[in-house]
Amino acid sequence: MTGMMESVKARPAKGGSEYRRVEPEEEEELDGAEWARRAEAGSRRRKTAERYVFTCALFASLNAILLGYDVGVMSGAIIYIQKDLHITEFQEEILVGCLSVISLLGSLSGGRTSDAIGRKWTMGLGAIIFQTGAAIMTFAPSFTVLMIGRLLAGVGIGFGAMISAVYIAEISPAAARGTLTSLPEICINLGILLGYVSNYAFSGLSEHISWRVMLGVGILPSVFIGVALFVIPESPRWLMMEKRVPEARAVLLQISESEAEVEERLAEIEEAANIMKSVNSEDKAVWRELLNPSPAVRRMLYAGCGIQLFQQITGIDATVYYSPTIFRDAGIKSDQELLAATVAVGFTKTIFILVAIFLIDKVGRKPLLYVSTIGMTVCLFALGTALTLRKHAEGLISPNLGIDMAIFAVCGNVAFFSIGMGPICWVLSSEIFPIRLRAQASALGQVGGRVGSGLVSMSFLSMARAISVGGMFFVFAAISTVSVVFVYFCVPETKGKTLEQIEIMFEGGKEWKGGGEVELEDTQHLMQGDKKAFSLG
User: Fold this and answer.
1) Transmembrane residues, as ranges (predicted)?
2) pTM score
3) H-type alpha helices, 393-514
4) Mind listing the pLDDT tens digit for each residue in 190-217?
């Protein structure tokens, strides 16, 4: 209704944006039939725009399938790589964990590359690099060649996964940005599930062939990414940064409900970026501003980099990569039974990420983070307890009960991760930074996550030998407890705000710190609403 009550025109404004809101003009008198016709036309355009934005976001999220598939498939493929190439435990840790660290090169260079050649072509470049690495791994005759392919795949994943979240945030309307920006997390979970299923499906092949087929199948998603590049448009915010205003307007016409909304969004983008002519952009290079940040940017970095770090050091990659090791420690013996149990984990992870998609723009980011971090803490502690009792107090619980407890705790951990820490990490890291810093700052946020993931993945087996697998999950439970405190003090609520409004919120430190009271009040209203709905049901 706002678009009917006011008009937005492209009109020069002295010392300001080319696009600005003007006073509402006198409304023409319309009869009932004309009002109905216009309302129907507006509804059709809105639905068309929503479908187009969703399609673009879905195609951009395909890069995340590559990351998810690699994580899932390596957990099973490593069993047969170890038997075929006779690698040591240390080589196994390096092979598994190096992807997270090497993807930093792709993430860090991806920010600069995306500013130079555009968001969508950076995603395409990442897919090509990944394809090359996956092909090398498939035909690797030795551990050295396998590592070369693994390193290339990591760079490609770093390129695509980082920039896809930025792209989706820049084309999405504020009301649906949380849902759409969490699509990459859905695709990661889908990729993990496909990796687990691939492991189970090809586990009957010979040791020399099985792991090669498992890794080779990962090339297929990158083919679809190549097709997607000819379907999705470039980011309108990137086009505005490049002063390609007509192209930016053409894209916004496809993803907006009305021409008035197009002009309003153009004005917001130009005001935020000011076509790179603001005083800050002239005085500071992007990286210098990130390394010597203002108080507002420092708060953004705390939230963005911190959430990425906690997402990984709470042990999610250890749970996914080494799930066969966990289940073997719980008492499962057969390789096929181990891989079948991992498929259950993959299904759980995928199902609960769908729950998050429906809630993230309704409940908000912060309440879901509380549920996620507290639930993960409980499940990690339960998993540590189950594995410890099985090892040191066999008489207290039956073997089958120990296995059931371990599977339930692992599935619970990935379920709570998927409704909060998993998708919201992507959402926050792509929406809290101002446009002039967004690509590089999002890449920098990946540093904490990737380093944390690499450290966990490359040290899990060695640390588990020292303090036991159960002991490792007690450590992860303690870190997860700290993450609850981090969410309370460092993560603001961004639900329903435009990217430009979020930037203003971080600029106002007092308002940002006081957000918790508002969030608590909103949560109370939400709970009361739920109780009423329940009683009515």
Assistant:
1) 52-82, 123-141, 147-168, 180-197, 209-232, 338-361, 367-389, 401-429, 466-491
2) 0.71
3) 399-418, 421-431, 438-467, 469-490, 499-507, 509-513
4) 888 899 999 999 988 888 899 999 999 8
